[in-house]
Design brief:
The structure is a homodimer. An 8-stranded mixed β-sheet of chain A has the order 3-6-2-1-9-13-14-12, with helices on both faces. The first copy, chain A, is α/β, with parallel strands linked by helices and about 400 residues long. Chain A has 12 helices and 20 strands. Chain A is globular, with a radius of gyration of 23 Å. In chain A, helix 2 runs antiparallel to helix 3, helix 6 packs parallel to helix 8 and helix 9 runs antiparallel to helix 10. The longest helix of chain A is centred in the first third of the chain and has 25 residues. In chain A, about 35% of the residues lie in helices and about 30% in strands. Chain A folds into 2 domains: about 250 residues, Carbamate kinase (3-Layer(aba) Sandwich); about 150 residues, VC0802-like.
């Protein structure tokens, strides 16, 4: 008997039929004697519908009130999925984030989980209930409803699995696992049977979109066994996300090609090179709750340097405004320039640690196609480049081929 | 400066434009220095949409889970209305029933309010916030979400007004007050400037539908000044619901003709006339949470009597089943018969206390139209008859005319 947390995304609960299909899968697991916690997202399209309502009233909806509105999406799903579970003969009980309670900070629309009171859930599981928990949401210490931001339902699933000491957290989505890259761009892309947490982290943050990055961080931190599966297939083992220490895993130099279409780059030119300058630039951006991705600062020439970073395209104009109005003059920088028509492409793989020449192969491959590299950033297990967005698909295809990702791993 | 609770129904918040219109009205009151609490229903159509979703999964949706689903309707509205209030320049903050907290019993889908913790609301009002509270919902002592049943938002409004000691509770709806009868049936129907609590109680319970009956009971019990207004008109004083003690009020013998289309009558025939028999019949019906309206038992003949009562048409078959399967044999009754094609028409008015002949005038008027009376029930301020539903409109029209309700009160 195992305790399994199953998380279902919006398309997996997008209709009454889909919910009943979820219920039947849960019933199979229950018949095998497992305890099941189901974490659900809002029905597909619902969050966007609610967001549109809010934006019809306020261009920038008040964050506290927006969370009150958006959190109803998952609340509808938990009630309906609990009914579907009863309909297939199981005992079921739903919980909102506040009811669990999933305590978060009060950063409305992008809150972080602080703790989970899992006692009542555990008691219900012991009493043979399937427990259905609303993903994406929590409650702050003053009882305000919060949401974790888009994709936050994954985080809820993993955090609950950690709090309950679950044997496995299964993320059901509309794909059957993690691929070497997006099959819509490269038809030869293959499903990976396993991927390491570190690779997954890089893949997720770079836009593979199978799992939300914070959930992968959570899983790594609390050693939660995480599996990505398709809710549209009854069979299939998906992709298991392993700890790097597993030595049996299939090894390859490169695991996949990740990319992110929504990247915008900003450069602060002619920054006086003195201690604290990086903080003076990034601090105000961070204070405005804008997530920064790549940050690059090169060595200085003549006492000044250029400082570049990327943000999500939606936050480009807000970040530019902050830099131009609050930062540029204050630090004595020459200029602030930006481009929101860029994309990021990365090769990811733990194998590159012990293999030289990955970077040069990547750069050569892009050069052969005439793709100009605008920024480069590297870590131990990935190399990312920022390029003009129009070359994105081409870059992904040629890199996928160059690193033999269409071939089965040995 | 007054503290006013304003309750807006589903059509009053049925669109973004309507919500902004609500916000502008609130702003007018705020400009006059009043403290305002806004209680809202779900956007029109939303509760039915959610109910349909649930019924697509379970024919009889699990009550606990149904409340989880239905309560989201009002939760969406509070967030959006709070945004609308901010949009017109006010400070606003929303509360779900659980956040207030509005403590109820655990009778899911038809819970009753036990108490209201109004401290936080009071604090926000003192800090110049307009407080927006979700109607129709509460939370039981175990933290389960409950709903008060259809129309429960009125009850929330009145209960909050009572808890806060508000100066007035204004119920905004799609009509501009209480009429002598339904203007859709009798075009000459007039709006009443005032109506007594007792009359309003009878009018509401008899199906006038302007206010939900429980809210009127609440208002009477806690002496809440209640006013019905139209949210579609900027002017107009609506109908004030007064205490009978107000001696200045306009006096008339009859205030209005109320009716209820959804009545079903049930008769238990040949009931042995012994103590406790009424309880043995009504007890099981009540235990099944079926509301009973009129109850009639006539004097017995030969040691047996006929026992009749009416229920809402939707609960007719359930009630019949209970009586046939659980009651009839147990008490030794001869038969159980019923008819769900009936309607109830009532004349209501505190004035009839001191006026004889109202009943005979009513019966004569119906007789002249050939309308057969199936059941009669009276109280101090109303006379109700159950008739074949096909005569309903005719009965209302002739009674409205017979009692001169198309003439202004003197």
């Amino acid at each position: 008997m195992a305790l399994i947390v199953q998380k279902y995304g919006g398309t997996s609960v997008g209709s009454v039929e889909r919910m009943l299909s979820v219920a039947r899968r849960v019933a199979k697991y229950k018949a095998q004697g497992h305890q099941i916690v189901v974490v659900v997202s809002a029905m597909s399209g619902e969050t966007n519908r609610l967001l549109a309502l809010a934006k019809n009233i306020q261009d920038s909806p008040d964050p506290r009130e927006l969370d009150v509105v958006l959190s109803t999406g998952e609340q509808v799903t938990i009630g309906l999925v609990a009914m579907a579970l009863m309909q297939v003969g199981l005992k079921a009980k739903s919980y909102t984030g506040a009811q669990v309670k999933i305590l978060t900070d009060n950063a409305f629309t992008k809150a972080r989980i602080l703790s989970i009171e899992e006692q009542n859930v555990r008691l219900d599981l012991a009493n043979d209930y399937v427990v259905v928990v609303a993903g994406f949401q929590g409650v702050d210490e003053n009882g305000n409803i919060t949401t974790l931001g888009r994709g936050g339902s994954d985080t809820t699933g993993v955090a609950l699995a950690a709090a309950l000491g679950a044997d496995e957290c299964q993320i059901y989505t509309d794909v059957d696992g993690v691929y070497t890259t997006d099959p819509r761009i490269v038809p030869e892309a293959r499903r990976l049977k396993t991927i390491t947490f570190e690779e997954m982290l890089e893949m997720a943050s770079l836009g593979s979109k199978v799992l939300q990055i914070r959930s992968v961080e959570f899983a790594g931190k609390y050693k939660v066994r995480l599996r990505v599966l398709s809710s549209f297939q009854d069979e299939g083992e998906g992709t298991l996300i392993t700890f790097e220490e597993d030595k049996d895993m299939e090894q390859a130099i490169i695991s996949g090609i990740a990319f992110n279409r929504d990247e915008a780059k900003i450069t602060v030119r002619g920054v006086p090179d003195r201690p604290g300058i990086a903080y003076q630039i990034i601090g105000p951006v961070s204070d405005a709750n804008i997530d920064v991705d790549i940050i690059i600062q090169n060595v200085s020439t003549d006492g000044t340097t250029d400082f570049s970073f990327t943000v999500h395209r939606n936050e480009f104009s807000k970040a530019m405004e902050i830099l131009k109005n609050k930062v540029q003059k204050h630090i004595g920088a020459a200029d602030v320039v930006g481009d929101d028509k860029t994309a990021k492409v990365s090769v990811v793989g733990v194998g590159m640690r012990s293999h030289v020449g990955i970077a040069s192969k990547m750069f050569r491959t892009l050069a052969e196609e005439g793709i100009n590299i605008q920024m480069i950033s590297t870590s131990e297990i990935k190399i990312s480049v920022v390029i003009d967005e129009k070359y994105l698909e081409l870059a992904v295809r040629v890199l996928h081929k160059a690193f033999d990702l269409d071939q089965e791993r040995i």
